[in-house]
Specification:
The protein is mainly α and 152 residues long. It is 46% helix and 9% strand.
Length: 152
């Protein structure tokens, strides 16, 4: 939601039909992934559009994972990555048979100090719960099925 509000930074599409449920964000600009069925979302509030993007992205990954040999897939949680980035990256590199170089270690040591290219603030555990809490609470039933599939 914060990325949508940071226009024009994350605008990825100009729509042929305007969004109508976003107040000051109304118009033909769409941020991040343009998901199937976006036309049906045009009059929804921002938190619902973002929830549908979250569902579409995670369901696509979960569906892809079911078609890939288990031995070729590694799960890394955001919580592990933000709570202990060095250990998590070391584990990831070990399981990918990659060298954990001093440069990789330095990157991991500073991972939580800076936002990534698609973030506005540095990563931190439960960041999503602290930003827009009432909107997040409202969409929890919408994302419940996907959350269960993700192991939450």
């Amino acid at each position: 939601m914060e990325g949508w509000r940071a226009r024009p930074r994350f605008v990825t599409y100009r729509l042929p039909l305007p969004l109508e449920g976003l107040g000051r964000l109304n118009g033909n600009r769409w941020s991040f992934l343009l998901i199937p069925g976006w036309r049906d979302l045009r009059s929804l509030p921002l938190e619902e559009i973002c929830a549908h993007q979250y569902i579409a992205c995670n369901e696509a990954v979960l569906d892809a994972r079911s078609r890939i040999d288990f031995a070729q897939w590694l799960d890394v949680s955001y919580e592990d990555l933000t709570s202990d980035p060095v250990a998590t990256v070391r584990w990831l590199f070990k399981n990918l048979a990659l060298d954990f170089t001093p440069e990789v270690q330095a990157f991991a040591e500073n991972l939580t100090d800076r936002p990534g290219s698609t973030a506005l603030t540095p990563p931190q555990p439960d960041k999503w719960r602290h930003q827009n809490p009432s909107e997040i609470e409202r969409i929890l039933p919408l994302v419940a099925r996907t959350e269960r599939r993700l192991g939450w």
